[in-house]
């Protein structure tokens, strides 16, 4: 068994529990990785708060990780036991349901195509902060068809994705100018990322920006307002679903170890840097506190978890066990039963209402018929009398 954070029902961060969870068996194309660090993402909170995807409960949250390969499936040739790797293990665009076992556990199984070897100059914490955010950032440039030499306006330049969009714009995609928004305390920080100009949204409104840009990249879902800084016909990319402006195009991400490999030279040279929120890294025992902070929306960079028990006490991996039987469940039982009970109650209430209304209607019809018959009888009597 291993230590893991999991939830058995949907709700706030308070539903998270720390307990024992079985170690998975890697399939033929998978690696078994001892997690040394993980990063939290907004999607982790959203999945826990409500069933966005057909998740299996109990569920261990987490997409991003960096760690050590301790075993591998028979078809894996690219990696060896002992390799240091990093990646995003959850592909929400795939036909299969998301993995039950996320990265907030000591050991995880992941497809070999989802990971890359960790850049040598990065710590496990720095590497873990990158995968989902950098894959999202890359996809937005591709989705919008960014062209070298264009001027880009980035909304939300201090967030987990925004910090990477600002860096990638010049370093990888050749932007001629990068302008980004953030709040007052983060202005100098965003400048260090390479932004030519920083717009403090607490002081300057979009309509007060005195220039139009070739490419608008909105990382916070505010394109219903930010659209006005884009040139006529310029691409407007929104990574939040659904986009809040009709001309905006939604951009998701492609989970790919190959994309991470292509970025490794930029990371190893220091041209692109991992940005960890200064309140972290949080210890593995403080996951609830880390989620609370993430959900305030005040993070600067990524919220990272380290200090996993197996890495602190040199816990050895010593064999496979099966995932819990709950893995075979096709839908969350507790929310389903709650919904079913509510549905049954609704049916009973509405049936009772219709029954009462039906009786009243029948009674009214009988009364009308009675009055009609009575009037006919008396009118006939009056006629005969006359």
Could you characterize what this model shows?
With about 375 residues, this protein is α/β, with parallel strands linked by helices. It is built from 10 helices and 15 strands. It has helices at about 40-50, 125-130, 130-145, 160-170, 185-190, 225, 255-270, 285-295, 310, 335-385; strands at about 1-5, 15-20, 30-40, 65-70, 85-90, 105-110, 115, 150-155, 175-180, 195-200, 215-220, 235-240, 250, 280-285, 305. Helix 3 crosses helix 4. The relative contact order is 0.15.
Mean pLDDT: 87
Elements, N to C (H/E): EEEHEEEEHHEHEHEEHEEHEHEHH
How many helices? The count is 10
Give the oligomeric state of the chains in this entry, treating copies of one chain as homo and distinct chains as hetero: single chain
Shape, principal axes of CA atoms: globular
Summarize the structure.
The protein has 386 residues and is an alpha/beta fold. It contains ten helices and 15 strands.
Features:
386 residues, alpha/beta, 6-stranded parallel sheet, 15 strands, disordered C terminus
Topology:
Layout: E1 2-6, E2 17-21, E3 30-40, H1 42-49, E4 64-72, E5 84-88, E6 107-111, E7 115-117, H2 124-128, H3 131-144, E8 151-155, H4 162-171, E9 177-182, H5 187-192, E10 197-200, E11 215-218, H6 223-226, E12 236-238, E13 249-250, H7 257-269, E14 282-283, H8 287-294, E15 303-306, H9 309-312, H10 333-385
Helix pairs in contact: 3-4
